[in-house]
Amino acid sequence: MTRVHPNVASAAASAAPAAPALAAARAEEKAEAEAVSLTVWRRSLLFNGKGFTVFDGAGNLVFRVETYAGGSRREVVLMDADGRALLTIRRKKLSLADEWLVYDGDAASPSPSAPAPKRFTARRHVSLRPTKSLAHLSPARASAGGVAAPSCRYDVEGSYAGRCLDVFASPSATSAGEQRRRVAAICRKEAAVGPDVFRLVVEPGFEPALAMAVVILLDQMHAP
C-alpha cells in the first residue's frame, strides 16, 4: 500500500514541531521563488471524524480540518498543525444561490469588540452550457476598521472530481497592467492512491491557507 505521508505517527502524536519547520520551509521556498507542493489527504486524523489532513514535502503536518461525525457541514474551520484557527468557511443562509463566506480566524467565537473579518464571498458557478468554470471568490468590502480588502478575484476551473483544476487570480479593473495568472493547482498524486489523496501546488506569492480554503469550498460545493 502506498504511504500517504512519512511522518504520520509523529504528526498525530505532537504537531508542535511542525510550525517552526513550516516557517523555515516557507522562508526557503520564498527565497528560491519556487512553488509549494502539499499532499492533501481527504481524511481526518480523529477517529470517526471527517475532514482533511495536509502535509508538506517533508511529511510534516501543515493544515487540518476536523469535523466530528454527525456535525454540521455548514461551517468548516481550517487549522494549522497546532490547532489554531486560520480561516472559517461558512455557507451563507437564506441565499438564492450556492454562496459561502470566508472569514479570518474562528468566526464561531469572535471577540465582541473585534468580530472575525470577512475576506471573500465564494459562489459556485452555474451554467446551462458546458464550461470549465467551477467557482468564483470575490473580495469582501473593507471592514469597519478601515482594513483594505484584497484587490484580486479568484476563478477556479477544471474538474474537482477528477482532481485536476487551476485557480486563477483576476486583478480588479483598477489594477492597471496586471494580467490573469495561475496561483494554485490541484492534481493527482503520481502514485495510484485514489481520489482522496492529491497534490495542492501553490505558486509563490499566494497564501497556502487560502489555497486550502479553495479545496474545502470545492468539497462543500460538490458534496452529495
Quick summary of this structure?
The protein is of the alpha+beta class and 224 residues long. Helix content is 16%, strand content 37%. It has a single domain, classed as Porin, CATH 2.40.160.200.
Could you name the CATH topology?
Answer: Porin
The CATH superfamily is identified as: LURP1-related
The CATH level-2 architecture is identified as Beta Barrel
Shape field: globular
Name the helicity range: 10-25%
The counted number of beta strands is: 12
* Total separate domains: 1
Strand order, sheet with most strands: 1-2-3-4-5-6-7-8-9-10-11-12
CATH class: Mainly Beta
Order of H and E elements: HHEEEEEEEEEEEEH
SS-based class: alpha+beta
Radius of gyration: 17 Å
Averaging pLDDT over every residue, what do you get? 80
Structural features, described:
This protein has three helices and twelve strands, in the order ααββββββββββββα. It is an alpha+beta fold and 224 residues long. The chain has one domain: LURP1-related (Porin, Beta Barrel), CATH 2.40.160.200. The chain has a twelve-stranded antiparallel barrel. A hairpin with a 4-residue loop joins strand 4 and strand 5. It is globular, with a radius of gyration of 17 Å.
